[in-house]
């Protein structure tokens, strides 16, 4: 396994399955504390609610502690280079979790850190989100080989990571994005060169949604750079009620809008 987790391509399909098996165990027992005595340095260049809560509380529940750094405090890439930040934190912490604007900052940190670097979001990739989405689909009993997954929305970091996931996991992926909002050209070319993936790529979604078993819908601009995202939602016209991508008017067994926080987390306290 790679030291760092910067993109889905840093892991294999069998390692994904191993993560899911471990998550199943953690749900059943709170006595497993592999991060006991460890400290995670969390760098949030971009503000967050769900991502910070997920990582900070998760580290605590696994026995570790976390220290939170904002961009204002560090000046990543401006006052402090990514290399210097990585070298300094490697002397104090055991893990770096970073949510940044530029993916190049993550790569520079990973190249100079002696501890693992985890991508909590960058402009290019959002691997932890896709792992959570996949686990949610699995919790619904639908993560079988060949399952159809649709991505409808901006061709952003989430779309990029889904395309990479389709290269290591046997899912049948359809990506439908508005014209002018395409996924990363390099990621798309690599996927198509490797396995002809995604199975279907629609630069201009048709009025009828693709027929998929599970769907992932993202608002345009939600995860783009800057406070408001890199795109305007005005570029996408609302669909009629019987075609709404958020699931309204659709049969939920055919389409499921995945939340940022997996719903199974809400039932943890009730299961103990």
Q: Give the overall average pLDDT.
A: 80
Distance between the termini: 32 Å
**Topology as H/E string?**
HEHEHHEHEHEHEHEE
**Beta-strand percent range:** 5-15%
Helix content: 25-40%
Q: In angstroms, what is the radius of gyration?
A: 19 Å
Number of helices: 8
Query: Which consecutive residue ranges, at least 5 long each, have pLDDT under 50?
Result: 225-232, 239-272
Read across the widest sheet, the strand sequence of neighbours is 2-1-3-4
- Estimated structural class: alpha/beta
What would you call the shape?
A: globular
Please outline the major beta sheet.
Answer: 4 strands, parallel
How many runs of DSSP E, i.e. beta strands?
A: 8
Can you walk me through this structure?
The chain has about 270 residues and is an alpha/beta fold. It has 8 helices and 8 strands. It has helices spanning about 15-30, 50-60, 70-75, 80-90, 105-110, 125-140, 155-170, 185-195, and strands spanning about 40-45, 65-70, 95-100, 115-120, 150, 170-175, 200, 215. The chain has a 4-stranded parallel sheet, sandwiched between helices. Helix 8 (about 185-195) links the parallel strand 6 and strand 7. Helix 4 crosses helix 5 (about 105-110) and helix 7 runs parallel beside helix 8 (about 185-195). The longest helix has 16 residues, at about 15-30. About 40% of the residues are buried. The model is unreliable at about 225-230 and about 240-270 (pLDDT under 50).
